[in-house]
Amino acid sequence: MRRQGSQFTSTDFIKVLAAHKIRISMDGKGAWRDNVFVARLWRTIKYEEVCLRACSSLSEARAGIGRYLSFCNSRRPHSSLEGKTPDQACFNQPMPEAVAAEPRRKTT
């Protein structure tokens, strides 16, 4: 059994798929890396957006995640992109105003 989400690569599960003539796609050795980017993205969204908001509906949560992703792509510089935003790096857009995590203001 492989370790890339063992519930999906167990012999029993694969037999069920084969019985229904469903082809599965696995890269084989090292396939755990295929999901690393998405897993890290969702972890970041979870801790920087979802867990900080108390959404009252699914549509409110979707809108909040959309705003967060827009912020990350268009305004938040990334060290792996030499301080550029993904939009600037991919689409040659001008650099945004400097954006850093703003300290939380005390409310009295």
From TrEMBL:
<dbReference type="InterPro" id="IPR012337">
    <property type="entry name" value="RNaseH-like_sf"/>
</dbReference>
<feature type="domain" description="Integrase catalytic">
    <location>
        <begin position="1"/>
        <end position="94"/>
    </location>
</feature>
<dbReference type="InterPro" id="IPR050900">
    <property type="entry name" value="Transposase_IS3/IS150/IS904"/>
</dbReference>
<dbReference type="InterPro" id="IPR036397">
    <property type="entry name" value="RNaseH_sf"/>
</dbReference>
<dbReference type="GO" id="GO:0015074">
    <property type="term" value="P:DNA integration"/>
</dbReference>
<feature type="region of interest" description="Disordered">
    <location>
        <begin position="76"/>
        <end position="108"/>
    </location>
</feature>
<dbReference type="GO" id="GO:0003676">
    <property type="term" value="F:nucleic acid binding"/>
</dbReference>
<protein>
    <recommendedName>
        <fullName>Integrase catalytic domain-containing protein</fullName>
    </recommendedName>
</protein>
<dbReference type="InterPro" id="IPR001584">
    <property type="entry name" value="Integrase_cat-core"/>
</dbReference>
<dbReference type="Pfam" id="PF13683">
    <property type="entry name" value="rve_3"/>
</dbReference>
